[in-house]
């Protein structure tokens, strides 16, 4: 494998390196322990969530924290933390490599994660996600983004940590995807801070592990089997300095872009990785549309706006930007 990955969307070829397998006895013990941890953790979350009274999201968050630790231990994943999550409300933002990421962050402290809507329909897992205050997003429906931002803002104002992966999908762990800006609006609206976190998976030798990434057309069960079969898997969780989400320009889009860029750069530097971006598309023949603009400013017609939107919908060759 090369040191950096330049793919816009990672596939199985990005993690095609062979991975050693743990002895059969170890794999059997891990499967047994995983089943017990899932049953015990699920039962505890359901029981606590059903109790009436104030603070249900906080109670279920604490139980989920312990349940996540049980599951990671049962899988044989050793978590090594540098720093700790900030106390109080914050938007927790990190890079996304594996399905283990959510468990690792939940194990560090109570979180309200943002998940795709499909998770809500998963047997058993969907019910647990709803009871623990997960915020759901239908990723192919941009019209739902304002509702998600409002829900995340309300959760932050109520004192919760809201956890999101702004890359929008998992990657192979050899480069960072561009951080999407929408979720950062919630931190701005709630006057909260952003807590960046960098996640890195290694094997017993300290090299980057190929067992953890969950990419391409692989199913969750296939990824789970690979993690169980790995002889040793370590997850390094590095909590970075919080970034205040304070508007400064008076233009939400500008502030959101600056905030996302600052957090993205912090995570990229911590990982020592490049950021994969789409090649910018620039209009070749500006067309004036009769709108007043400043002297020397470029005018873009409505037809070119449609052309740019069409180009954005198609895949474009990626470029790597160093942290």
Automatic annotation (TrEMBL):
Record's keyword annotation contains Lipid metabolism: yes
Keywords in alphabetical order: Acyltransferase, Lipid biosynthesis, Lipid metabolism, Membrane, Transferase, Transmembrane, Transmembrane helix
Pathway the protein acts in: Lipid metabolism
InterPro entries given in the database record: Plipid/glycerol_acylTrfase
Residues covered by the Phospholipid/glycerol acyltransferase domain: 90-202
Gene Ontology biological process terms in this record: phosphatidic acid biosynthetic process
GO molecular function: 1-acylglycerol-3-phosphate O-acyltransferase activity
Listed Pfam families: Acyltransferase (PF01553)
Chain ranges passing through the membrane: 33-55
Name of the protein: Phospholipid/glycerol acyltransferase domain-containing protein
Species of origin: Nakamurella endophytica
């Amino acid at each position: 494998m090369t040191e950096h990955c330049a793919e816009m969307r990672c596939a199985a070829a990005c993690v095609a390196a062979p991975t050693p397998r743990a002895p059969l006895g170890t794999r059997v013990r891990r499967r047994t322990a995983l089943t017990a941890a899932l049953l015990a953790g699920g039962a505890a979350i359901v029981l606590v969530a059903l109790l009436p009274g104030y603070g249900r999201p906080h109670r279920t968050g604490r139980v989920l924290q312990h349940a996540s630790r049980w599951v990671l231990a049962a899988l044989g994943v050793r978590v090594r933390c540098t720093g700790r999550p900030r106390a109080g409300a914050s938007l927790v933002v990190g890079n996304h490599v594996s399905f283990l990421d959510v468990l690792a962050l939940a194990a560090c402290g109570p979180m309200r994660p943002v998940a795709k809507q499909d998770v809500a329909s998963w047997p058993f897992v969907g019910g647990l996600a709803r009871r623990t205050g997960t915020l759901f997003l239908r990723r192919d429906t941009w019209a739902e983004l304002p509702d998600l931002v409002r829900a995340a803002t309300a959760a932050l104002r109520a004192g919760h940590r809201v956890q999101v992966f702004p890359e929008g999908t998992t990657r192979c762990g050899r480069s960072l995807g561009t951080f999407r800006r929408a979720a950062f609006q919630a931190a701005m609206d709630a006057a909260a801070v952003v807590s960046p976190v960098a996640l890195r998976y290694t094997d017993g030798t300290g090299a980057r592990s190929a067992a953890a990434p969950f990419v391409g057309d692989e199913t969750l069960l296939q990824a789970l089997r690979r993690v169980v079969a790995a002889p040793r898997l370590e997850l390094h969780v590095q909590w970075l300095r919080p970034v205040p989400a304070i508007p400064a320009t008076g233009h939400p889009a500008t502030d959101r872009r600056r905030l996302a860029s600052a957090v993205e750069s912090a995570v990229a530097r911590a990982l020592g990785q490049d950021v994969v971006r789409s090649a910018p598309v620039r209009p070749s023949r500006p067309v004036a549309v009769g709108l007043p603009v400043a002297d020397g400013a470029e005018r873009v017609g409505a037809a070119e706006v449609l052309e740019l939107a069409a180009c954005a919908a198609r895949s474009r060759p990626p470029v790597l930007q160093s942290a």
